[in-house]
Fold this sequence. Notes:
Layout: H1 3-17, H2 36-54, E1 59-63, E2 66-71, E3 74-78, E4 85-90, H3 106-120, E5 123-128, E6 131-136, E7 139-144, E8 149-155, H4 168-172, E9 178-182, E10 185-190, E11 193-198, E12 204-209, H5 216-219, H6 223-227, E13 249-260, E14 263-269, E15 275-279, H7 283-287, E16 296-304, E17 313-324
Parallel strand pairs: 15-17
Antiparallel strand pairs: 1-2, 2-3, 3-4, 5-6, 6-7, 7-8, 9-10, 10-11, 11-12, 12-13, 13-14, 13-16, 14-15, 16-17
Helix pairs in contact: 1-2, 1-3
Amino acid sequence: MNRWSLVSAIIVIVVLSAGCAFAQPDPAHPQPDIPPGMQKLQQLVTQMVTQRMAEQRTQVLYTPQGIFIERNGTLALLNAATLKEQKVIELFGALPEMPAGADVAPKARQQWLLQLAKRLLPTAMLASGNDLLILVGDQFFRVDIPTQEIKASVSLVPEKELVRNNGRLMFAMLAMPTLELHDKTLYITRGDQLFAVNIDDGTVLASGTMPVQMQMQAKLPGLDQLLHPDKAPANPKRTGKNTLNDTAITIVGVMVKHADANGDFWTVKNNLDEEYVLKGEALPQLLATPKIEGARARLTGQLTHEDNIPQFSAGSLVVEQYQVLP
């Protein structure tokens, strides 16, 4: 089963659970590309999604400008006294018509389902000053309250990353998010995932996961076996050049060079002025980048806390993947 088959299976479950008029597959005749383990997983996810869909999905927020209501990717501003509609905004843009006809390519139908599913994912919303901050599934929006203009629209996770770790990030999007704002940093919890986001432009400043005791796999220890019943259980501690384990975090910040009695060392400083000492086999390649000092970078790896690091640092990051930002 390929990665996009997993994504499609979960998205179809979301759509079906939302009450859309698509026929359920016949359990007696499963799709040939969905193994028996995935059939069990679909039943499990269907129960989870149905429970979420039964909970409150419409977000309502009072502001001096009026009442903002968000549902299924649509934001409406109502007069607080009369509840008359003042403006309606499609956060994701207008949803195109569903491809119809026997000659429609499967990819076209899949892309339409993806667009629809984005609008059906759990939502959270809060207001601060002139900013209306909205999270719909994986998409962060900042809307200017006085003008009702979308000032920022950013996906928290690149689309290609959603299928990593057996699709756990996809499962995280099915969980109801919570938001906490401090200055310009919005802290987001969503399933097992944690994010710190700059509200001005939606930059993901840091990302991580809940403590192991709080994670979904602690409640569903057979998740990997359900996804891949024909394979041996994956070792969650394995690491490699192109493989991250489930405890990897991402930090976005500025590369800083230091020196002490032991020689030069490098840190990355985030927007909260927290510095992390950089280590790992990927570090020399990163440092070979021209004009790396003072450059902004997105670094992913394992966070450790050691006794021999400088006191001003918040910890050590063993760099496994990196991206130098413009």
